[in-house]
Amino acid sequence: MKFSKILTIAVVALGATIALSGCIRETFPKTSTITQEQLETGIDVDVNLLKGISRGILAPAYGGWEHTDFGFPSVGVYNDQAAQVVVTNGWTLGNAPAYNRFYMGSWGKGYANNSWMPVHFWYTYYPQIKSCNDVIKMLAGKEESAGSSAIARTYRANLYLDLARIFECLPMDEADIELQRGDVAGYNEGYNRVKGLTVPIVTEDTTEDAAKNNPRATREELFKFILNDLSIAEAEFSKDTYRKVSATDSDLAVVYGLYARVYLWLGGFNEENTGELNGELPQGNEAYALAAEYAQKAIATFGGAIMSEKEWTDKITGFNTQASSWMWTLFHSTDTIAGNLHQFAAHMCVEASYGYCQFTCPGVGSKYFNHLGKNDFRRKLIVDPDGSYETFKAYTQMSKEEYDAVAPYTFFKFRPAQGNRTDYATAGAIAIPMMRCEEMYFIEMEAIYHTQGQDAAWQKLVAFMASRDPKYVCPSMEILDEILFNKAIEFWGEGQMMYDFKRLNKGVTCKYAGTNYDEDRRFNTAGRLPWWTSPIPQQETQINLAIKENNPDPTNVVQPAI
After folding, report:
1. Is the pLDDT of residue 558 over 50?
2. 388 Cβ neighbours under 8 A, 6+ residues apart
3. DSSP per-residue string spanning 495-516
4. Is-contact 18 114, C-beta < 8 A?
5. What pLDDT digit, counting tens, does each position of 299-337 carry?
6. pLDDT reported for residue 6
7. The CATH number of 22-314+434-543 is which of 1.10.600.10, 3.40.50.12710, 1.25.40.390, 3.20.20.210?
8. CA-wise closest residue to 87 among 468, 511, 427
9. Contact 309, 381 (CB under 8 A)
10. Has this prediction a pTM greater than 0.85?
């Protein structure tokens, strides 16, 4: 495969002018199994409409123009790269850092409103919201299909929650102004103009004319809308008549999990931090208490399963097959895979020989690896710079020659489907978790940290970590940082950590002795990175004239440490 040619084409495409229609002009996702006839006549409603949502969410947003265009999971990879949780190590072998097609997330480039990143986020989410709206509208008043409508509402709530967390601008830390990290003061001036604003709400009843004059919802307005969807779904899923048919369907445990995510985010705002903009909604510790409550409900309703060491480390089925703790799952199939490079496995499964991973070697920062307990089974899947093939071969299908070409700190978490390393259509047909029960344990322990203190949170953390490291001893450090560290290892590649770091105003440390971050991403900050907030794409603001103020451009606000 001519990877140099692939890279050149991708870079040239990046420089081209993006010309996409606004979300109000989108039709139902083209990769959906729902036909226009079915939308109009209701043929196979409950099967095909829901299948259309779960497949459409994996579809390219804009025709596969960039190799990262493979739907919802691609946003998670961008998030983890932006949070500096996923580190690409191929550069240490002499490979070009830009083989990492998610480099814009890690370097903070391409975030201007007329550039790549805002378009990617916007057009990955809003067409799928339209899909949910179509289903909700079509099934309105049909009691026999109320469960299907509730599933569509949970998908919609989850999509809007992500949009809120991506597009609500939060300020940079004042300490970064003092440290002269860049034009932090100018960025914060832009923040003050859009404080508390999220995204336009498009519902099943929004007309095209209304969408052209649809202002950004306030935080309170959007989260009331999200909570209303969850309330309706909760009521429906609580009925004895509801039965979850597929792992792609949601249920009561998933709704409780979404409540927990919502209240965890709202907990990040308090009386010192624009909590008043939550309006009638809870803020601070009141919201954190609800996050803990709903996380506990999700755990109890689901059954509390945690993935075992065998499930994690299986070199054939590890993180590509529905596992015991997965509450909500997406499934790539051969007919949803756009190509050998437009798929999750090509970028995150090191053993997929047809993808970018052989050149990028995605993994963790050396500081993360060194902090991870030596008895933690997750460490077994990370290439130890002092390790050997003899030790690692139990966890890989690679030969010694192949393994020796893999950079240290590479993480073998995700496996190509069926253990197939060469046929991209088969290897790429993996299952991807949208929600795991483990997340609920971490939400609970963090929320308890805020509301009950370090000792109570420590007990929760130690109890969970017994499933990962039988000899785990919590180090003498800030308990919250230890919770976040273990959550970052647990959910590496799943796209959760940027939201936590953004909410908590956590900084990044990428330049240090022995760093394995490439030079363009060696950011050291006291607080959140500016590109954890995306501007709204220019295409939308040109069509929707009610969007008066856009988020500040985060590009080049912060420079790598020298």
Report:
1. yes
2. none
3. S-HHHHHHHHT---B--STT--
4. yes
5. 999 999 999 999 999 999 999 999 999 999 999 988 778
6. 37
7. 1.25.40.390
8. 511
9. no
10. yes
